[in-house]
Amino acid sequence: MSKVASPLVATSRLTIDLGSIVRNWKLLGLFTPDAATGAAVKANAYGMGLEPVTAALDSAGCRHFFVATPGEGIRARKVAANAEIFVLGGLTRENAAFYQEAGLIPVLNDPGEIEIWAERCRQTGNRKPCALHFDTGMNRLGLSESQALQLAADKARLHSVSPVLIMSHLACADDPQHPMIDCQKQAFDRLRAVFPGFMGSLANSAGILAQEGLGYDLTRPGIALYGAEAIDSTVGPMDSVATFEARILQVRHAKKGETVGYGATHVLARDSVIATVGAGYGDGVPRAASGDGVPLRAQFPGAVGHVCDKDVPMIGRVSMDSCMFDVTDIPAAQLEKAEWIELFGENVAVDDLARACGTIGYDILTGMRDRCERVWVG
Ligand SMILES: *Cc1c(COP(=O)(O)O)cnc(C)c1O
After folding, report:
1. Which of 67, 220, 350 to mutate to test the pocket of ligand 1 (most atoms within 8 A of CB)?
2. 123, 192, 298, 341 — which has fewest CB within 10 A?
3. CATH number for the domain harbouring residue 43
4. Residue range of the domain that includes 337
Protein backbone atom coordinates (compact mmCIF):
# COMPACT_ATOMS: atom_id res chain seq x y z
CA MET A 1 0.00 0.00 0.00
CA SER A 2 1.36 3.40 -0.83
CA LYS A 3 0.06 6.88 -0.82
CA VAL A 4 1.13 9.91 -2.75
CA ALA A 5 2.90 12.41 -0.55
CA SER A 6 1.35 15.83 -0.50
CA PRO A 7 4.25 18.05 0.47
CA LEU A 8 2.22 21.05 -0.57
CA VAL A 9 -0.07 20.76 2.43
CA ALA A 10 1.84 19.01 5.20
CA THR A 11 4.64 20.62 7.18
CA SER A 12 5.60 17.42 8.93
CA ARG A 13 5.70 13.90 7.57
CA LEU A 14 6.34 10.39 8.78
CA THR A 15 7.59 8.05 6.07
CA ILE A 16 7.03 4.40 6.94
CA ASP A 17 8.86 1.66 5.09
CA LEU A 18 6.53 -1.34 5.08
CA GLY A 19 9.23 -3.44 3.39
CA SER A 20 11.49 -2.86 6.39
CA ILE A 21 8.71 -3.91 8.76
CA VAL A 22 8.28 -7.15 6.83
CA ARG A 23 12.07 -7.72 6.74
CA ASN A 24 12.25 -7.13 10.51
CA TRP A 25 9.38 -9.57 11.06
CA LYS A 26 11.17 -12.26 9.04
CA LEU A 27 14.46 -11.59 10.80
CA LEU A 28 12.81 -11.93 14.22
CA GLY A 29 11.45 -15.29 13.10
CA LEU A 30 15.02 -16.56 12.61
CA PHE A 31 15.74 -16.05 16.32
CA THR A 32 12.96 -18.46 17.34
CA PRO A 33 12.85 -21.07 14.55
CA ASP A 34 10.47 -23.37 16.44
CA ALA A 35 7.86 -20.70 17.07
CA ALA A 36 5.37 -18.89 14.87
CA THR A 37 6.10 -15.17 14.77
CA GLY A 38 3.13 -12.95 15.52
CA ALA A 39 2.95 -9.17 15.48
CA ALA A 40 1.78 -6.56 17.98
CA VAL A 41 -0.08 -3.93 15.94
CA LYS A 42 -1.74 -2.16 18.86
CA ALA A 43 -1.72 1.62 19.24
CA ASN A 44 -2.08 2.14 15.49
CA ALA A 45 0.82 -0.28 14.94
CA TYR A 46 3.01 1.85 17.22
CA GLY A 47 2.01 4.92 15.22
CA MET A 48 2.95 3.33 11.87
CA GLY A 49 -0.66 2.80 10.72
CA LEU A 50 -2.63 -0.23 11.86
CA GLU A 51 -4.23 -1.08 8.52
CA PRO A 52 -1.22 -0.79 6.17
CA VAL A 53 1.09 -2.57 8.63
CA THR A 54 -1.38 -5.38 9.32
CA ALA A 55 -2.07 -5.83 5.61
CA ALA A 56 1.64 -5.94 4.76
CA LEU A 57 2.41 -8.51 7.47
CA ASP A 58 -0.67 -10.55 6.58
CA SER A 59 0.54 -10.73 2.96
CA ALA A 60 3.98 -11.76 4.20
CA GLY A 61 2.43 -14.70 6.03
CA CYS A 62 1.91 -13.43 9.58
CA ARG A 63 -1.05 -15.34 11.03
CA HIS A 64 -1.28 -13.94 14.58
CA PHE A 65 -1.88 -10.29 15.44
CA PHE A 66 -2.10 -8.69 18.87
CA VAL A 67 -4.08 -5.52 19.52
CA ALA A 68 -4.99 -3.78 22.76
CA THR A 69 -8.68 -2.99 22.30
CA PRO A 70 -11.72 -4.41 20.53
CA GLY A 71 -11.83 -1.29 18.32
CA GLU A 72 -8.30 -2.00 17.10
CA GLY A 73 -9.32 -5.61 16.55
CA ILE A 74 -12.16 -4.60 14.26
CA ARG A 75 -9.78 -2.41 12.24
CA ALA A 76 -7.27 -5.26 11.93
CA ARG A 77 -9.97 -7.71 10.90
CA LYS A 78 -10.90 -5.54 7.90
CA VAL A 79 -7.45 -5.96 6.37
CA ALA A 80 -6.57 -9.46 7.61
CA ALA A 81 -9.64 -11.55 6.90
CA ASN A 82 -8.22 -14.91 7.87
CA ALA A 83 -5.66 -14.10 10.56
CA GLU A 84 -6.05 -14.77 14.27
CA ILE A 85 -6.52 -11.46 16.03
CA PHE A 86 -5.95 -11.45 19.78
CA VAL A 87 -7.34 -8.56 21.81
CA LEU A 88 -5.27 -8.04 24.95
CA GLY A 89 -7.89 -6.24 27.01
CA GLY A 90 -11.31 -4.71 27.20
CA LEU A 91 -13.81 -7.60 27.12
CA THR A 92 -17.12 -6.68 28.76
CA ARG A 93 -20.54 -8.28 28.90
CA GLU A 94 -21.74 -5.57 26.51
CA ASN A 95 -19.10 -5.97 23.82
CA ALA A 96 -18.63 -9.76 23.91
CA ALA A 97 -20.95 -10.08 20.91
CA PHE A 98 -18.64 -7.87 18.81
CA TYR A 99 -15.78 -10.25 19.48
CA GLN A 100 -17.79 -13.18 18.22
CA GLU A 101 -19.13 -11.36 15.17
CA ALA A 102 -15.73 -10.02 14.13
CA GLY A 103 -14.01 -13.27 14.99
CA LEU A 104 -11.73 -11.62 17.53
CA ILE A 105 -10.02 -13.72 20.16
CA PRO A 106 -10.28 -12.18 23.62
CA VAL A 107 -7.28 -12.55 25.91
CA LEU A 108 -8.93 -13.37 29.24
CA ASN A 109 -7.20 -11.77 32.19
CA ASP A 110 -9.27 -12.73 35.22
CA PRO A 111 -12.06 -15.06 36.41
CA GLY A 112 -14.66 -12.37 35.68
CA GLU A 113 -13.69 -12.27 32.02
CA ILE A 114 -13.66 -16.06 31.86
CA GLU A 115 -17.21 -16.01 33.23
CA ILE A 116 -18.31 -13.45 30.61
CA TRP A 117 -16.84 -15.49 27.77
CA ALA A 118 -18.23 -18.79 29.09
CA GLU A 119 -21.68 -17.26 29.37
CA ARG A 120 -21.47 -15.75 25.89
CA CYS A 121 -20.45 -19.10 24.42
CA ARG A 122 -23.26 -20.87 26.33
CA GLN A 123 -25.92 -18.34 25.25
CA THR A 124 -25.01 -18.48 21.59
CA GLY A 125 -24.31 -22.19 21.62
CA ASN A 126 -21.17 -21.26 19.79
CA ARG A 127 -17.81 -21.88 21.40
CA LYS A 128 -15.30 -19.37 20.04
CA PRO A 129 -11.61 -19.40 20.81
CA CYS A 130 -10.02 -17.32 23.55
CA ALA A 131 -6.56 -16.96 25.06
CA LEU A 132 -5.64 -17.17 28.73
CA HIS A 133 -3.22 -14.63 30.13
CA PHE A 134 -1.23 -15.61 33.23
CA ASP A 135 0.51 -13.06 35.39
CA THR A 136 3.92 -14.51 36.21
CA GLY A 137 5.24 -11.59 38.20
CA MET A 138 4.55 -8.31 36.47
CA ASN A 139 1.35 -7.62 38.40
CA ARG A 140 -0.29 -5.96 35.45
CA LEU A 141 -2.77 -8.25 33.72
CA GLY A 142 -3.57 -11.93 33.87
CA LEU A 143 -4.66 -14.73 36.19
CA SER A 144 -2.45 -15.21 39.22
CA GLU A 145 -0.73 -18.56 39.49
CA SER A 146 -3.27 -19.79 42.06
CA GLN A 147 -6.22 -18.67 39.91
CA ALA A 148 -4.64 -20.45 36.95
CA LEU A 149 -4.20 -23.67 38.97
CA GLN A 150 -7.85 -23.53 40.02
CA LEU A 151 -8.92 -23.16 36.42
CA ALA A 152 -6.70 -26.04 35.33
CA ALA A 153 -8.48 -28.25 37.87
CA ASP A 154 -11.95 -27.19 36.69
CA LYS A 155 -12.17 -29.11 33.44
CA ALA A 156 -15.80 -28.16 32.74
CA ARG A 157 -15.04 -24.47 32.99
CA LEU A 158 -11.91 -24.78 30.89
CA HIS A 159 -13.86 -26.65 28.25
CA SER A 160 -16.60 -24.01 28.24
CA VAL A 161 -14.24 -21.25 27.05
CA SER A 162 -12.09 -23.27 24.61
CA PRO A 163 -8.70 -21.55 24.94
CA VAL A 164 -6.33 -21.82 21.99
CA LEU A 165 -3.37 -20.08 23.60
CA ILE A 166 -1.86 -19.55 27.02
CA MET A 167 0.40 -16.56 27.40
CA SER A 168 2.30 -14.41 29.85
CA HIS A 169 4.32 -11.21 29.55
CA LEU A 170 7.90 -10.46 30.60
CA ALA A 171 8.57 -7.46 32.79
CA CYS A 172 12.34 -7.09 32.34
CA ALA A 173 13.39 -8.62 29.03
CA ASP A 174 14.86 -5.28 27.92
CA ASP A 175 17.62 -6.02 30.47
CA PRO A 176 18.88 -9.50 29.46
CA GLN A 177 20.80 -9.96 32.74
CA HIS A 178 17.73 -9.39 34.89
CA PRO A 179 16.93 -12.34 37.19
CA MET A 180 13.21 -11.76 36.76
CA ILE A 181 13.36 -13.24 33.24
CA ASP A 182 14.23 -16.67 34.62
CA CYS A 183 11.69 -16.42 37.45
CA GLN A 184 8.95 -15.67 34.97
CA LYS A 185 10.07 -18.42 32.61
CA GLN A 186 9.96 -20.93 35.45
CA ALA A 187 6.50 -19.78 36.50
CA PHE A 188 5.32 -20.06 32.89
CA ASP A 189 6.79 -23.57 32.62
CA ARG A 190 4.95 -24.63 35.80
CA LEU A 191 1.70 -23.37 34.29
CA ARG A 192 2.36 -25.01 30.94
CA ALA A 193 2.70 -28.31 32.78
CA VAL A 194 -0.86 -28.02 34.13
CA PHE A 195 -2.24 -26.75 30.80
CA PRO A 196 -0.72 -29.39 28.54
CA GLY A 197 -1.37 -29.27 24.82
CA PHE A 198 -2.06 -25.55 24.57
CA MET A 199 -0.04 -23.23 22.39
CA GLY A 200 2.23 -21.09 24.60
CA SER A 201 3.48 -17.53 24.15
CA LEU A 202 5.80 -15.52 26.36
CA ALA A 203 8.19 -13.34 24.36
CA ASN A 204 7.78 -9.78 23.18
CA SER A 205 10.58 -8.26 21.04
CA ALA A 206 13.03 -8.10 23.91
CA GLY A 207 12.19 -11.67 24.93
CA ILE A 208 13.06 -12.88 21.41
CA LEU A 209 16.38 -11.02 21.42
CA ALA A 210 17.36 -11.35 25.09
CA GLN A 211 18.06 -15.06 25.29
CA GLU A 212 17.23 -18.37 23.65
CA GLY A 213 14.42 -20.53 24.93
CA LEU A 214 11.72 -17.92 25.44
CA GLY A 215 10.03 -18.41 22.06
CA TYR A 216 7.66 -21.33 22.92
CA ASP A 217 5.04 -21.73 20.17
CA LEU A 218 4.28 -18.12 19.28
CA THR A 219 6.12 -14.83 19.76
CA ARG A 220 4.57 -11.36 20.02
CA PRO A 221 7.09 -8.79 18.79
CA GLY A 222 6.08 -5.15 18.58
CA ILE A 223 8.75 -2.49 18.90
CA ALA A 224 11.47 -4.41 17.01
CA LEU A 225 9.20 -4.66 13.96
CA TYR A 226 9.22 -0.90 13.88
CA GLY A 227 12.99 -0.59 14.06
CA ALA A 228 13.39 0.84 17.56
CA GLU A 229 15.42 -0.48 20.50
CA ALA A 230 13.97 -3.54 22.21
CA ILE A 231 16.97 -4.22 24.45
CA ASP A 232 17.88 -1.14 26.44
CA SER A 233 20.59 0.98 24.75
CA THR A 234 21.29 -1.71 22.14
CA VAL A 235 20.90 -0.79 18.52
CA GLY A 236 20.03 -4.36 17.49
CA PRO A 237 19.88 -5.92 14.05
CA MET A 238 16.62 -4.34 12.89
CA ASP A 239 16.16 -2.15 9.82
CA SER A 240 15.16 1.44 10.38
CA VAL A 241 11.46 1.84 9.53
CA ALA A 242 10.23 5.35 10.19
CA THR A 243 11.55 8.76 9.19
CA PHE A 244 10.04 11.87 10.74
CA GLU A 245 10.81 15.16 9.00
CA ALA A 246 9.63 18.72 9.35
CA ARG A 247 9.61 21.31 6.61
CA ILE A 248 11.84 24.34 6.99
CA LEU A 249 9.39 27.23 7.18
CA GLN A 250 11.90 30.03 7.61
CA VAL A 251 15.63 30.62 7.96
CA ARG A 252 16.53 33.69 9.97
CA HIS A 253 19.67 35.44 11.10
CA ALA A 254 19.88 36.63 14.69
CA LYS A 255 22.52 38.42 16.73
CA LYS A 256 24.54 37.23 19.70
CA GLY A 257 22.58 37.98 22.89
CA GLU A 258 19.14 37.72 21.30
CA THR A 259 16.79 35.00 22.51
CA VAL A 260 14.88 32.20 20.81
CA GLY A 261 11.37 30.91 21.42
CA TYR A 262 8.78 31.03 24.21
CA GLY A 263 10.11 32.14 27.56
CA ALA A 264 13.23 33.51 25.87
CA THR A 265 15.02 30.52 27.34
CA HIS A 266 17.75 30.25 24.71
CA VAL A 267 20.20 33.13 24.58
CA LEU A 268 22.35 33.09 21.46
CA ALA A 269 26.04 32.78 22.29
CA ARG A 270 27.05 33.97 18.78
CA ASP A 271 25.52 35.52 15.70
CA SER A 272 23.38 32.63 14.47
CA VAL A 273 21.32 31.16 11.68
CA ILE A 274 18.09 29.63 12.89
CA ALA A 275 15.84 27.23 10.95
CA THR A 276 12.24 27.12 12.11
CA VAL A 277 10.48 23.90 11.07
CA GLY A 278 6.80 23.03 10.91
CA ALA A 279 6.53 20.39 13.62
CA GLY A 280 5.82 20.88 17.28
CA TYR A 281 4.08 19.10 20.10
CA GLY A 282 0.88 19.22 18.01
CA ASP A 283 2.61 16.82 15.61
CA GLY A 284 4.23 14.60 18.21
CA VAL A 285 7.54 16.33 19.00
CA PRO A 286 7.49 16.12 22.80
CA ARG A 287 7.96 19.46 24.51
CA ALA A 288 10.60 17.70 26.61
CA ALA A 289 12.77 17.59 23.45
CA SER A 290 13.29 21.37 23.75
CA GLY A 291 16.83 22.64 23.59
CA ASP A 292 16.32 24.86 26.61
CA GLY A 293 13.74 25.81 29.20
CA VAL A 294 12.39 22.43 30.28
CA PRO A 295 13.36 20.63 33.52
CA LEU A 296 15.26 17.77 31.84
CA ARG A 297 17.80 20.20 30.33
CA ALA A 298 19.46 20.40 33.73
CA GLN A 299 20.44 16.74 33.23
CA PHE A 300 21.23 16.14 29.55
CA PRO A 301 21.08 17.95 26.21
CA GLY A 302 17.95 18.28 24.11
CA ALA A 303 17.12 16.82 20.72
CA VAL A 304 19.16 17.13 17.55
CA GLY A 305 17.91 17.26 13.99
CA HIS A 306 19.74 16.25 10.83
CA VAL A 307 20.07 18.32 7.66
CA CYS A 308 22.71 18.60 4.91
CA ASP A 309 24.64 15.66 6.42
CA LYS A 310 25.03 17.41 9.78
CA ASP A 311 23.41 17.10 13.17
CA VAL A 312 21.94 20.39 14.35
CA PRO A 313 20.84 21.12 17.92
CA MET A 314 17.30 22.12 18.76
CA ILE A 315 17.28 25.51 20.49
CA GLY A 316 14.62 27.07 22.68
CA ARG A 317 11.31 25.49 23.56
CA VAL A 318 9.20 23.31 21.28
CA SER A 319 6.02 25.20 20.31
CA MET A 320 2.74 23.61 19.29
CA ASP A 321 3.40 23.88 15.55
CA SER A 322 7.09 24.55 15.23
CA CYS A 323 10.51 24.24 16.74
CA MET A 324 13.87 25.82 16.01
CA PHE A 325 17.32 24.46 15.13
CA ASP A 326 20.72 26.15 15.17
CA VAL A 327 21.95 25.76 11.58
CA THR A 328 24.77 28.30 11.82
CA ASP A 329 27.34 25.64 10.87
CA ILE A 330 25.62 24.63 7.62
CA PRO A 331 27.09 26.39 4.55
CA ALA A 332 24.52 28.87 3.20
CA ALA A 333 24.55 27.40 -0.30
CA GLN A 334 23.61 23.96 1.06
CA LEU A 335 21.02 25.30 3.45
CA GLU A 336 19.28 27.15 0.63
CA LYS A 337 18.54 23.83 -1.07
CA ALA A 338 17.38 22.03 2.07
CA GLU A 339 13.62 21.66 2.49
CA TRP A 340 13.22 19.32 5.46
CA ILE A 341 14.99 18.59 8.73
CA GLU A 342 14.95 15.00 9.99
CA LEU A 343 13.88 14.62 13.62
CA PHE A 344 14.35 10.86 13.56
CA GLY A 345 15.08 8.21 10.95
CA GLU A 346 18.26 6.87 9.33
CA ASN A 347 20.45 9.59 10.83
CA VAL A 348 18.90 10.33 14.21
CA ALA A 349 17.71 7.19 16.05
CA VAL A 350 14.21 7.50 17.41
CA ASP A 351 15.63 6.22 20.70
CA ASP A 352 18.07 9.13 20.81
CA LEU A 353 15.20 11.57 20.47
CA ALA A 354 13.44 9.57 23.18
CA ARG A 355 16.44 9.77 25.52
CA ALA A 356 16.57 13.54 25.09
CA CYS A 357 12.94 13.55 26.24
CA GLY A 358 13.52 11.21 29.19
CA THR A 359 11.41 8.49 27.61
CA ILE A 360 11.58 5.48 25.27
CA GLY A 361 11.12 4.96 21.52
CA TYR A 362 7.70 3.35 22.08
CA ASP A 363 6.43 6.60 23.53
CA ILE A 364 7.73 8.73 20.64
CA LEU A 365 6.37 6.41 17.92
CA THR A 366 2.94 5.97 19.47
CA GLY A 367 2.85 9.70 20.20
CA MET A 368 2.97 10.76 16.54
CA ARG A 369 -0.16 12.78 15.91
CA ASP A 370 -2.53 12.77 12.94
CA ARG A 371 -1.44 16.19 11.72
CA CYS A 372 1.89 14.65 10.79
CA GLU A 373 1.32 13.22 7.34
CA ARG A 374 2.01 9.53 7.03
CA VAL A 375 3.50 8.25 3.80
CA TRP A 376 3.85 4.51 3.29
CA VAL A 377 6.55 3.18 0.99
CA GLY A 378 7.90 -0.26 0.12
C1 LIG B 1 2.81 -4.57 23.73
C2 LIG B 1 2.89 -6.03 24.02
C3 LIG B 1 3.75 -6.84 23.28
C4 LIG B 1 4.78 -6.29 22.32
O5 LIG B 1 5.84 -5.76 23.09
P6 LIG B 1 7.18 -5.14 22.45
O7 LIG B 1 8.00 -4.81 23.63
O8 LIG B 1 6.75 -3.91 21.72
O9 LIG B 1 7.77 -6.15 21.56
C10 LIG B 1 3.68 -8.21 23.50
N11 LIG B 1 2.84 -8.73 24.42
C12 LIG B 1 2.01 -7.97 25.17
C13 LIG B 1 1.13 -8.59 26.17
C14 LIG B 1 2.04 -6.59 25.00
O15 LIG B 1 1.26 -5.83 25.78
Report:
1. 220
2. 298
3. 3.20.20.10
4. 242-377
